[in-house]
Design goal:
- There is one protein chain.
- By secondary structure, the chain is of the alpha+beta class.
- Among the domains are: about 190 residues, 2-Layer Sandwich (BirA Bifunctional Protein, domain 2), CATH 3.30.930; about 80 residues, no CATH class.
- Helix content is about 50%, strand content about 10%.
- The chain contains nine helices and eight strands.
- The strands form two sheets. Strands 2-4-5-3-1-8 form a six-stranded mixed beta sheet, sandwiched between helices. Strands 6-7 form a two-stranded antiparallel sheet.
């Protein structure tokens, strides 16, 4: 393609022979607008319109075509129809934004439609069956159905019937020869479309018509050009590609699920290990705190235990004094206890006052010492020790240290 035609608008012309099944596919494509095999935007489907033929679709238009008196093709006709897609380059319909798919310049579109419909009617005449405009895909285009017809005449008379006279035979031959024929669908019998290269001739004819709009007819195909891909082949290839892609996605999703499960298991194991470490550290910390608290409590209780021990000893001493002196009043018992404590710890003053206190304590303790001495004598004589009274020494009381007269 020459470099100076890069911005040139070109004619889009795809013409192919079609069977009845292909007409059905065309009908489905026009009626059921789903984005499976084309870039269809359902929001713009309402903009599509039928320019020629039955609005119900190509099949209905073809049925009307036959109802008008056209004879259907013979059973041996494999591809009696023509399917055509007619359009133009995107830069013709939207010169300011050719990459903005799904948009068009309204004035350019209407001008193109006027030229297209005029050209189709001129080229195909009464054989034009259906023309529809699609605006819900990337670029505006036409779908065209053509039923090429020819005049099918009776077989020529070349044999005389048995017993037929010359005049009757001649009349019969003349009648057949004068018959105009029956209009019948059949591309292979069409006077021009059955010829080799007829599609290229048709493209050039349409190209000359669209030249008024600045649309180039394109360049003829050569033997080296690849064979154009049919819509069916493209759909099948896309279906195979999508199937393979779906298989890849399914495998990826399975792998992702496996990786997710493995990650969850690893995260749970790490969480359990971290929880065990936290629990161990917490238990160790609590054990240390308990040990520290036990030490604090022990230190705190030690003087209390000593006090309790002293209090128990004090109660025991008072009890023994009461047992030794059962008839002495409580006040005298306290005096005896105080005297015993002073004797035990020698908490006397120096001098005369101290001597006076010693003498007084000796007098106070004399009845108690006698009771204790008597009790010891009983034990010495072999009396049961169940009522044994402790001596002054067992009670932590030292020997009598009277410094004064008894």
């Amino acid at each position: 393609m020459p470099k100076d035609t890069i911005n040139q608008s070109f004619l889009v012309f795809n013409c192919e022979p079609a069977s009845a099944d292909m007409v059905t596919d065309m009908d489905i494509h026009e009626i059921k607008r789903v984005a499976d095999s084309s870039n269809i935007d359902p929001a713009r489907t309402c903009l599509n319109r039928v320019l020629f033929g039955n609005p119900a679709g190509p099949k209905a238009a073809l049925a009307d075509f036959y109802k008008a008196g056209v004879k259907m093709p013979s059973r041996r006709a494999r591809l009696p129809y023509l399917r055509i897609v007619l359009g133009a380059s995107a830069n013709f319909f939207r010169p300011d934004a050719p990459g903005q798919i799904g948009t068009w310049d309204a004035a350019r579109l209407e001008a193109w439609l006027d030229v297209a419909t005029t050209a189709l009617k001129r080229e195909f005449g009464a054989d034009l069956v259906h023309v529809s405009l699609h605006l819900d895909e990337d670029t505006p285009h036409l779908h065209v159905l053509v039923a090429p017809t020819y005049l099918r005449k009776p077989r020529a008379v070349d044999r005389r019937r048995k017993g037929e006279a010359d005049a009757a035979f001649a009349a019969r031959k003349a009648k057949v020869a004068a018959s105009p024929g029956v209009r019948t669908v059949g591309r292979a019998s069409h006077p021009t479309l059955r010829l080799e290269g007829s599609f290229e001739v048709l493209r050039q004819a349409l190209g000359r018509t669209f030249a008024a709009l600045g649309i180039h007819p394109g360049y003829p195909r050569t033997q080296d050009d690849p064979k154009p891909k049919t819509t069916r082949k493209w759909v099948n290839e896309e279906a195979a590609r999508l199937k393979a892609r779906h298989a890849e996605l399914d495998a990826a999703f399975i792998e992702i699920a496996d990786l997710k499960d493995a990650a969850v298991l690893e995260a749970r194991a790490q969480e359990r290990a971290r929880a065990d470490l936290i629990i161990a550290e917490t238990v160790s910390g609590l054990q240390k705190r308990v040990a520290d608290l036990e030490a604090i409590i022990a230190n705190y209780l030690r003087p209390l235990k000593l006090l309790l021990k002293d209090a128990a000893a004090e109660r025991g001493l008072l009890r023994r004094i009461r047992q030794a002196l059962p008839d002495v009043p409580d006040k005298k018992i306290k005096e005896v206890r105080a005297a015993l404590e002073r004797v035990d710890y020698q908490t006397y003053r120096e001098g005369q006052f101290g001597q006076m206190q010693r003498a007084q304590d000796a007098e106070t303790l004399r009845p108690y010492r006698r009771a204790v001495a008597g009790q010891e004598q009983i034990e010495h004589d072999g009396t049961s020790t169940s009522n044994k009274m402790p001596t002054d020494r067992t009670m932590g009381i030292g020997p009598d240290e009277d410094s004064g007269p008894a």
